[in-house]
Write a structure and sequence with these properties.
Organism: Gordonia defluvii
Shape: globular
Pfam family, one: N6_N4_Mtase
Number of strands: 28
Mean pLDDT: 85
Distance between the termini: 17 Å
CATH architecture of the largest domain: 3-Layer(aba) Sandwich
Strand order of the largest sheet: 7-24-8-23-22-9-12-14-13-21
CATH topology of the largest domain: Rossmann fold
Oligomer: single chain
InterPro entries: DNA_methylase_N4/N6 (IPR002941), DNA_methylase_N6_adenine_CS (IPR002052), RM_Methyltransferase (IPR001091), SAM-dependent_MTases_sf (IPR029063)
Keywords: Methyltransferase, Transferase
Helix content: 25-40%
Structural class: alpha/beta
Number of helices: 20
Largest sheet: 10 strands, mixed
Protein name: DNA methylase N-4/N-6 domain-containing protein
CATH superfamily of the largest domain: Vaccinia Virus protein VP39
Length: 666
């Protein structure tokens, strides 16, 4: 909305170019809508990505493959029907297509697909497959927004620390440590990805972000803005050694920042899980029986409950029933447990602020004390009323709620582990599998079937950690890892001196996916290194690795890209069992996880098969209907059992990448 008295609006109105004037007005409106308080940074131009394998076509933006210039042009036309020589816009002149590489900015619609590069089946047939995607993580997140919106339990990422020495890439260029805008570029880079990441989390989901000193304070504020400060969980400190502490810099220290998608949903989910699935209900029931058998004598009931626990504790998690007694009202309590780890229905009474009269409902697991004790604390002015009442504790007795005491683990162990896996020592600074296993275990304690996403996958540590944890506790967690095939700044400099560039086989062979991540994951799953030597007995896991590809929307609409879209459908169906990657003669296909209807003329047979699966208690999680007709699509929906999700292809696929393509509002 313009203001005639505003200097900026007056100046913008004098711009002759309609498009430029509109763009400037839009950007100013965005600035006016920015937060008054919080993190302020310049939002830089959208990033771009080079697509070495993308065909050169009329209308697409291109750059020089040899990187001799940073300039880009649009292909206006070709000189003849061979399409060997492109005529470029502006002063680009005529260039042979072999000299060019396609370039796409993040603000442009891009239609991703997946191409399988390695499939390893070494686990149970009914287990979910671990997935590794090699490609630009912003575009991979867009694809996952279509397949996994609201489905992810845990996101763990270890993004570039932006120290000036880690050689991270923004807008297809390494960010120089002397770049005065490197922090705002980094924040723009992170914000675009975190906005999509938030959409992927379940209401009970959690995100953990590792970071160093340089951007820790900025990242904390950015996460507050994206996820809400009320959903902050933890700021853990990892003392990893390696360099000595100095007067000015805490060398060797990393941080783990944790946020909930919705902390109230997460808390309620944890209580419900413990009551229903952790054996807690059995303890509560045993306390009630002991209370009745004792004639409502708390001391005798506690002795009876203790005997029950000693007879049955092998069935439950250690510590579940330790130090448990029966309270005077017949409910189970843990001695000295001020955190109320047992569900306390006897503490679920409301309390009121005697000054304001405001009544507060109890938290999910009840108050800390029984009513008479809480009333006494209120009378003694020992309860602080605010958004949530809490005890007034002397400062000397308070722990730092927001900071978990540091844990120590030498980072050199992670490098030694990867060197052992690969049989070579030339990959620095991988993430530590044992540290990740610990954090994933904590974050998924109530979800042994959790979906764990890492979209800064690097060398593949998160995928290995999930597989190791599953083996240890018989879990069925699924990892989705997004990495890329980038090369470190120093290595890239050497290759360019040898006249090698992105897209050249020699360059790609040294990228982190091909050189480290792919052979590492293959080795830990199969137990055999690429050179044929033995590393281990392997891990009982299934994993498939993909390259992210870029599709032509017209080809997608005409059904000519089904092979590249099929893995996305398999992913949305849970990545279990076989992938429907061919069009069957019957015109439809159905697995235990999902189904695809290719021809509406065979709807009756398909609907009968889906109904039979639903009747047997194993309905497909999603059904894809390939039709351009909205009427046909609705006809299919009406014939399928209630509760089966449906997706119309290819319209839903294409719209996912043309709506909100920038990754969220500013």
């Amino acid at each position: 909305m313009t203001d005639d008295s505003n200097v900026l609006d007056q100046l913008i109105s004098r711009v002759d170019d309609d498009v430029l004037r509109s763009r400037l007005a839009h950007e100013v409106d965005l600035l006016r809508g920015s937060r008054r308080f919080g993190l302020v940074f310049d939002r830089h131009l959208p990033e771009s990505v080079r697509l070495p394998d993308h065909p050169i076509r009329k209308g697409i933006r291109v750059a020089l493959r040899d990187e001799s210039s940073a300039e880009t042009w649009v292909v206006d036309r070709f000189t003849d029907r061979t399409r060997d020589v492109a005529v470029l816009s502006g002063d680009g002149g005529n260039r042979h297509v072999s000299e060019l590489v396609a370039v796409r900015e993040f603000g442009e619609p891009i239609y991703p697909g997946l191409r399988s590069v390695e499939r390893i089946e070494n686990g149970p047939a009914d287990a979910p497959w671990h997935v590794v995607i090699n490609g630009e993580n912003f575009h991979a997140l867009q694809a996952l927004r279509s397949t996994h919106r609201g489905k992810v339990d845990l996101i763990y990422i270890d993004p570039p620390y932006n120290t000036g020495n880690d050689g991270w890439i923004y807008n297809d260029r390494y960010v120089d440590q002397n770049d005065r805008a490197k922090s705002s570029k980094w924040l723009s880079f992170m914000e675009r990805r975190l906005l999509i990441a938030q959409e992927l989390l379940k209401p009970t989901g959690v995100i953990i972000v590792a970071i160093g000193d340089d951007e820790h304070h900025r990242l904390r504020m950015l996460l507050d803005q994206v996820f809400g400060s009320e959903n902050f969980l933890v700021n853990a400190i990892w003392q990893g050694g390696g360099s000595s502490l100095s007067r000015f810099h805490a060398g060797g220290v990393d941080y783990m920042l944790g946020y909930a998608r919705d902390i109230s949903a997460l808390t309620a989910d944890g209580v419900q899980w413990r009551v229903e699935k952790d054996g807690l209900q059995d303890v509560l029931d045993a306390a009630a029986v002991a209370w009745n058998e004792s004639g409502q004598d708390a001391e005798d009931a506690s002795r009876r409950l203790s005997k029950w626990w000693n007879r049955n504790k092998s069935k439950y998690d250690p510590g579940l029933g330790d130090n448990v007694k029966v309270d005077v009202d017949g409910t189970a309590i843990k001695v000295g447990d001020l955190g109320n780890s047992l569900y306390r229905p006897n503490l679920r009474y409301p309390i009121s602020d005697p000054t304001t009269g405001i009544t507060y409902e109890p938290p999910a697991n009840g108050w800390r004390f029984k009513r008479e004790v809480m009333d006494e604390m209120i009378d003694r002015d020992r309860v602080l009323f605010g958004s949530r009442p809490r005890l007034k504790t002397p400062l000397a007795e308070m722990s730092m709620r927001s900071v978990v005491p540091s844990f120590y683990r030498d980072r050199r162990g992670a490098s030694q582990h990867v060197a052992k896996v690969l049989g070579r020592k030339d990959f620095p600074y991988p993430k530590d599998v044992e540290v990740l296993t610990r954090w994933i275990s904590i974050a998924t304690v109530y979800r042994p079937d959790a979906i764990v996403l890492d979209f800064f996958g690097g060398s593949g540590s998160t995928a290995e950690a999930v597989m190791v944890l599953n083996q240890r506790d018989s879990g069925s967690r699924q990892s989705i890892l997004v990495t890329n095939n980038e090369i470190g700044a120093s290595e890239a400099k050497k290759l360019r001196k040898a006249d090698l560039h992105p897209g050249d086989p020699e360059w790609e062979a040294r990228g982190v996916f091909e050189y480290v991540c792919r052979p590492r994951i293959s080795t830990v799953v199969t137990g055999e290194r690429p050179d044929g030597s033995t590393y281990s007995e392997g891990l009982p896991a299934n994993v498939e690795m993909f390259d992210l590809t870029y599709l032509d929307p017209g080809m997608v609409r005409r059904g000519h890209e089904f092979e590249s879209v099929a893995p996305l459908m398999w992913l949305e169906g849970g990545a279990r069992g076989a992938c429907i990657d061919e069009i069957p003669d019957e015109g439809w296909a159905l697995t235990d996880a999902y189904g695809v209807l290719f021809d509406v003329d065979v709807l009756t047979a398909f609907a009968e098969a889906v109904t039979a699966a639903a009747t047997s208690g194993a309905p497909p999680s999603v059904v894809f209907v390939i039709t351009d007709s909205e009427a046909e699509y609705q006809q299919v929906v009406e014939r399928l059992p209630v509760g089966v999700d449906t997706v119309q292809l290819y319209e839903d696929y294409l719209s996912n990448y043309t709506i909100n393509i920038a990754g969220g509002a500013r």
